[in-house]
Amino acid sequence: MPRAVAGPEIERLIQLLARLPGLGPRSARRAALHLIRKKDQLLMPLAAAFSEASTSVKVCTSCGSVDTSDPCAICSDQGRDNSVIVVVEDVADLWALERAEAVGGRYHVLGGTLSALDGRGPDDLNIAKLVERASDERVTEVILALNATVEGQTTAHYLTDVLARAGVKVTRLAHGVPVGGELDYLDEGTLSAAIRQRTPF
Amino acid sequence: MPRAVAGPEIERLIQLLARLPGLGPRSARRAALHLIRKKDQLLMPLAAAFSEASTSVKVCTSCGSVDTSDPCAICSDQGRDNSVIVVVEDVADLWALERAEAVGGRYHVLGGTLSALDGRGPDDLNIAKLVERASDERVTEVILALNATVEGQTTAHYLTDVLARAGVKVTRLAHGVPVGGELDYLDEGTLSAAIRQRTPF
Q1: Contact (CB<8Å) A66/B10
Q2: What is the C-alpha to C-alpha distance for residues A145 and A108, in angstroms, rounded to an integer?
Q3: Residue B179 buriedness (CB in 10 A; 0-12 / 13-18 / 19+)
Q4: In the A/B pair of chains, how many CB contacts fall below 8 A?
């Protein structure tokens, strides 16, 4: 147990900050000091934003995303295409696709992947609700936007089986060369996928 | 302006988190999502710790450090040596020395270094108060624990001149090989300082 460097309120602040992803003990101390120095511009607004978020943030009962309203802004947006559902593992993936402005339809957040190692089966994921939504007659396509990892692809195969009963077309993201990517630095799997799934020029 | 990925409360949380040192826009989003997921264990305690800190943290009028009391815990600690003052640039340096348990005396936080480039002169630093404290007859030594940078050493030279009038011994940190350091990886300046200031074995 190292010697406490400041009063218990500051120590507690540092300990809590160190539990954020991307911050270790040292950077948590730097962040705490920065917050204390910028009390009016940063510490007090963050305190307000944190307590605001802790009361207002909800999980969307339709798609499983997080937002300050339920159903979330995307589920209640009348301008979106009702025929397409994009399935993602995590809210962070949904946010990434939204930033890319790549999706005109709806989303469904699984909350993880199937994993025998971690003991996560189909009942631990938001799958029953997905099948229910996909069975809606307006839905014609489900796009599986899962990570290109072993768990992601296992989950994709499982979902393809389950969704076959719902009578929708199931597609997945294209594999290939990332935009801006140099061939020399890509792995063999990506390169052979890019050759196999080549498109007319 | 990228498309907003979530409600305004969540967007605001992300924007404020991105202003912490060590967090960029992407890691701020990850941190926000982590906070939202761990609402009871992390978001709410942090909200409480932030508002607690924003009301209770003060700058010590004696040494310039930050703490929840004024004078701070170190200045009001009766068990510390009154004859030594260790001068540091920043509260983070004070915390680092305290963690090393290297100092039995008091501290003085300058709040930066002299810098012609950034237009910081002696009046912008906590120097007048240092001279006042050093003039106390109980104080016999001032240790300059400033960074080994050009600005740090310029400031050390200036302080040596100013403190000569106070009639105290002025010392500085030893330069040399860091503990655990390998000679092959050290710069020439450090190596020649380590040779010049060699000590008997």
Answers
A1: yes
A2: 10
A3: exposed
A4: 168
- Give which of A87, A70, A76, A97 is closest to A134, Cα–Cα: A87
Residues B44, A54: C-beta atoms closer than 8 Å? yes
Residue A162 C-alpha, separation from nearest chain B C-alpha, in angstroms: 28
- Smallest CA–CA distance, residue A178 to chain B, in Å, is 19
User: Cβ(A144)–Cβ(A160) under 8 Å?
Assistant: yes
Spatial contact of A73 and B7, defined as CB atoms under 8 Å apart: yes
**Amino acid identity at A120:** R
**Disruptive mutation site among B10, B70, B74, B93 for chain A (greatest number of A CBs within 10 Å):** B10
Residue position matching structure tokens 């050759």:
A195
Which residues of chain B neighbour A30 with C-beta distances below 8 Å? 21-22, 92
Q: What angle, rounded to 10 degrees, do the helices at A150-164 and A127-134 form?
A: 40
Q: Which residues in chain B are closer than 8 Å to A3, comparing Cβ atoms?
A: 98-99, 101
* Domain range A8-56, its CATH number among 1.10.645.10, 1.10.3720.10, 1.10.8.420, 3.40.140.10: 1.10.8.420
Q: What is the pLDDT along chain A (201 residues), one digit of tens a residue?
A: 445 667 788 888 999 999 998 898 889 999 999 999 888 899 999 999 999 988 889 899 999 999 988 899 999 999 999 999 999 999 999 998 988 888 889 999 999 999 988 899 999 999 999 999 999 999 999 999 999 899 999 999 999 999 988 889 999 998 888 888 888 888 888 888 888 888 888
- Residue B177 corresponds to which amino acid? V
ipTM over 0.85: no
CATH of A66-172, one of 3.40.1360.10, 2.60.40.3500, 3.10.450.50, 3.40.50.2000: 3.40.1360.10
The answer to whether residues A21 and A7 touch, using CB atoms and an 8 Å cutoff, is no
